[in-house]
Write a structure and sequence with these properties.
The complex is a heterodimer. Chain A is α+β, with helices and mostly antiparallel strands. Chain A contains 18 helices and 31 strands. Chain A folds into 3 domains: 234 residues, Aldehyde Oxidoreductase, domain 4 (2-Layer Sandwich); 149 residues, Aldehyde oxidase/xanthine dehydrogenase, molybdopterin binding domain (Aldehyde Oxidoreductase, domain 4), CATH 3.30.365.10; 314 residues, Aldehyde oxidase/xanthine dehydrogenase, molybdopterin binding domain (Aldehyde Oxidoreductase, domain 4, 2-Layer Sandwich). Helices cover 29% and strands 23% of the residues of chain A. In chain A, helix 3 crosses helix 5. Chain B has a 5-stranded mixed sheet, with helices on both faces. The chains are: A alpha+beta, B alpha+beta.
Chain lengths: 741, 149
């Protein structure tokens, strides 16, 4: 067994000699560590000789890629498999994907690295250190996370693609040796090895066993993008067929012999506790088996979900509201308004002298923006199941961090980690919610009380909406200074409640004097990552404010932006202007707004064409997006992700608001936390901008700028500048805030 | 006992009359393709057909179904052959997380039976289900494609 450093951050592994059963496997790790044998044990199957993890080639040519990311619809498992097939020169029809088991061996450092370093381009000299540090953190903190748009640009580009290239090299090496020909003369195409001069060929599967005896190369070369045959071509998703015939299994769909069903009610105030509850009313009802009490929740266990829920409704638990009982969003908003008007800030970014440049500016623009709390409301409210029997825990759930959840579940159940069987199933939408495994623990809590019977716990939509981890509300005071030529020479963003890394608040415009600062600690509501995280703050506030500055400068908003951005951003802006006919007059009664945002390494420009109806509400007719993600692996899927990101951001812009009163979330279900449906969904056009930039993310970058594009369109149409979301609070004919809101 | 006709077969269920059809399907008959999303008829993830009409099964008590013919997502595929709506869904790569798609497909199936060549306005009016992943462009395209198949 030998590991070879292929760069300062990657080590490839093969295990020569052990491959007796005709297989090959190649894995890659950022640093050698002792859990590799464990990984081998986990992914190995009878009749195949697994050497490392992450790619396994069988004698039947099948290539299985172990992806340490959950699929919740983003299509990244297919994209990552495409990257492997590309570097391996494998025939696409032989590709399979399995989600890697929840084990420390699969902890993915790429996300942590991206998160910690805020997606900055790491200077070459620091690269190894950064990777090493995050790998250590990934192991230590139990990260095996899906999020941060990291699957393709992190796991795919950094680990699995090189593993595919290594597998191809080892296969060629084996063929060269078997045929007695130079390595350079062995070619590959679609899972077949060729030696033209002697007219010999072999299937990959035939050469897998011999390949496994070779060590991976020390000087691995990846393909140039121009040579790609699979990457960059729209490829059908591997997860899809089961999602059209009802056979795709989410945790809700688990059906086990003797399984019980439980309904959950948590303390109405997050952080509150259960004082007491009389189980009698529920116990008297049909099908009810048990009432389970925990520190902050009560559960009814019955023979089906509906009976459990009805019986739970019959209970009258008494709660202690705890420290959050007085929290209200109104008071939080007031505190944040005071905060951004005050003097206590932490500085994220500073260049030149913003204060002096603002006071000396020919024209000064100032505005206060307000955005609300948001819930994730994934399509599937949480469901999970567990069985505790003979000192072992088996758990079925869908989480974005299975390794962390597995460890927490083991601790909660009081069993050793090696006595846990953890099944991460399909997730019915995540958007960041699945990064918190609080719901999965409910299955453990209840399973401890069911005498060895498996039990499925499910939340109602109301429970989900009122016990989420919420995108923070925020207030931003923005100031801009224009010189006599209408150029932005000073900018200051004083905002409340930063949750993301500092890089996300950076000004994405070239302004010589700028200051980005924030005030935290005014917002006690439980926070969670929400699709594109803090980009949703600045994507709205800064992009609306740039529109205000453009108007103050008497310039077209696209032209104004154009004068203050990088070449890469300009290409995206020009593309979206082109495909939306930005310069032409919109149809009667409509106007267009534009916005631009770079997030997760992807630059997205958006134009929204809007009108305002007789009800004073905005109607978004069409959204054009241009996106430069450096490299797009699966274009059709990437476009779907951008379009979905637009709808996600649009639902928030039009309707989304979570409010808190006496510690309780008011919004309960879709009628009061509404979503864009087909009739409100704009038609969409997405254009991919080719560039040589580093590969960026796809799952999140469509979301952050759309609210600004819409609000800017409303201004262009009506002259009313709406600086607060959601837009439903305003009668856009007059710009007045609705009294009833 | 409640008697239901589901996907062409008769079932006798020992459940309360006010039990929503969704839970009878999912927990009693183990037909788990229809999903719970909101429980109040707002999202459509639970959509099934009763006598050809799209119905939100989370808000339909089993006692009110009577002799109605219930069709669920499980009935659309015949052997290995997808229905033309399902086939169009695959061709347009419509699903993302997939959780809402049983309901979307059933709603589209009802629409296409009533209006074999629906306009965009017909689609807007009939397709009131929420797709939180926002796959509306693909769903719309899939309905048009199924209409042409």
């Amino acid at each position: 067994m030998a590991g070879f450093k292929v760069s300062r951050r990657l080590v490839l592994y093969s295990l020569g000699g052990v491959a007796a059963a005709g297989g090959l496997a190649v894995g890659i790790a950022a640093m050698p560590y002792s859990t590799l044998p464990r990984a081998r044990e986990l992914v190995g199957k009878d009749g195949e000789s697994v050497l490392r993890t992450w790619i396994r080639l069988g004698a039947d040519d099948a290539v299985t890629v172990f992806v340490p990311h959950v699929d919740f619809g983003q299509g990244s498992q297919t994209a990552v498999a495409m990257m492997v097939a590309e570097e391996m020169d494998a025939d696409w029809k032989h590709m399979r994907v399995e989600e890697a088991p929840a084990d420390a061996a699969f902890a993915n450092g790429a996300l942590v690295r991206n998160f910690l370093l805020g997606n900055v381009h790491v200077p070459q000299a620091l690269d190894g250190l950064a990777n090493f540090g995050s790998r250590r953190m990934a192991q230590n903190m139990g990260f095996q996370i899906t999020g941060g748009s990291s699957a393709v640009r992190g796991t795919g580009a950094v680990t699995l693609a090189p593993a595919g290239a290594a597998a191809r090299w080892m296969l060629r090496k084996a063929a060269a040796q078997a045929w007695g020909v130079p390595l350079e003369e062995v070619e590959t195409e679609a899972s077949v090895l060729h030696h033209r001069a002697s007219n010999r060929s072999a299937r990959y599967g035939q050469m897998a066993e011999a390949a496994a005896r070779h060590d991976p190369p020390g000087d691995l070369k990846l393909k140039e993008r121009a040579a790609y045959r699979i990457v960059g071509k729209t490829t059908p998703r591997l997860d899809l067929p089961a999602k059209v015939d009802g056979t795709a299994h989410y945790p809700h769909d688990l059906r086990l012999e003797g399984m019980l069903y439980a309904a959950a009610r948590q303390a109405p105030v997050i952080g509150g506790t259960l004082l007491d509850v009389d189980p009698a009313p529920a116990m008297a009802m049909r099908g009810v088996k048990k009432v389970v009490k925990t520190g902050d929740a009560v559960f009814v266990v019955a023979d089906n979900t509906w009976r459990a829920r009805v019986a739970l409704d019959a209970l009258e638990p008494r709660w202690n509201d705890g420290a959050n009982g007085q929290v209200s969003s109104g008071a939080i908003m007031e505190a944040m308004n005071r905060g951004v008007a005050g003097a206590e800030f932490k500085t994220d970014h500073e260049a030149g002298d913003a204060e002096t440049a603002l006071s000396g500016a020919a024209t000064k623009v100032e505005a206060l923006y307000t955005i609300p709390f948001l819930a994730h409301a994934p399509m599937a409210p949480p469901a999970m199941a567990a069985q505790i029997k003979d000192g072992a825990l088996e758990i079925w759930c869908a989480v974005q961090n299975p390794l962390g959840a597995m460890r927490e579940a083991a601790k909660r159940a009081g069993v050793k980690e090696d006595k846990v069987r953890f099944h991460n199933m399909l997730m019915g939408g995540g958007f960041g919610r699945g990064g918190f495994a609080d719901y999965a623990m409910h299955a453990v809590d209840v399973a401890k009380e069911t005498d060895g019977a498996p039990v499925q716990v499910s939340w109602t939509r109301e429970e989900d909406m009122t016990h989420d981890w919420y995108r923070q509300a925020s207030v931003a005071k923005l100031e801009g200074g224009l010189d006599a030529q209408g150029r932005l020479v000073a900018f200051r963003n004083s905002f409340s409640e930063r949750r993301d890394s500092a890089e996300v608040s950076a000004l994405q415009y070239e302004v010589p004097n700028h200051l980005i600062r924030y005030v935290n600690g005014l917002n006690p509501v439980r926070w969670g990552y929400w699709r594109s995280v803090d980009n949703t703050l600045h994507g709205f506030t800064v992009e609306c404010f740039m529109d205000e500055c453009a108007r103050a400068a008497g310039k077209d908003p696209a032209e104004f932006r154009r004068a203050h951005i990088s070449e890469r951003q300009r290409a995206v802006l020009d593309r979206v202007a082109e495909i939306s006919n930005w310069g032409s007059a919109p149809p009667e009664g409509r106007a267009r707004g534009i916005a631009l945002r770079e997030s997760f390494g992807t630059v997205v420009g958006q134009v929204a064409e809007v009108s305002v109806g007789d009800n004073g509400q905005v109607r978004v007719h069409h959204v054009w997006s241009a996106a430069d993600a450096g490299l797009v692996v699966n274009p059709g899927n990437f476009i779907s992700q951008i379009e979905g990101g637009v709808i996600f951001g649009l639902s928030a812009a039009l309707y989304g608001e979570i409010s808190v009163e006496n510690g309780r979330v008011r919004e309960q279900n879709f009628p009061d936390y509404d979503m864009v449906r087909m009739a409100e969904a704009p038609r969409q056009t997405v254009s991919i901008v080719e560039s040589a930039s580093r590969i960026g993310g796809g799952g999140e970058p469509g979301t952050p700028a759309i609210a600004a594009a819409v609000a800017n369109g409303v201004f262009a149409l009506t002259g009313h500048r709406v600086r607060e979301l959601p837009l439903r609070h305003f009668d856009l004919r007059s710009g007045a805030r609705r009294a009833s809101a | 006992m409640i008697s239901l006709t589901i996907n062409g077969a008769s079932h006798a269920l020992d459940v309360e009359e006010d039990m929503p059809l969704l839970w009878a399907l999912r927990d009693v008959l183990n037909l788990t393709g229809s999903k719970y999303g909101c429980g109040v008829g707002a999202c459509g993830a639970c959509t099934v057909l009763i006598n050809g009409q799209a119905v939100r099964s989370c808000s339909m008590p089993v006692g009110a179904v009577g002799g109605g013919r219930i069709e669920t997502i499980e009935s659309l595929k015949q052997g290995d052959t997808l229905s033309k709506v399902q086939q169009a869904w695959v061709e347009t790569q419509a699903p993302q997380c997939g959780y809402c798609q049983s309901g979307q497909i059933m709603a589209a199936t009802a629409l296409l039976r009533a209006k074999p060549r629906p306009t965009d306005a017909d689609i807007d009016a009939a397709m009131t289900n929420i797709c939180r992943c926002g796959a509306y462009e693909q769903i719309r395209a899939a309905i048009h494609r199924a209409a042409e198949a």
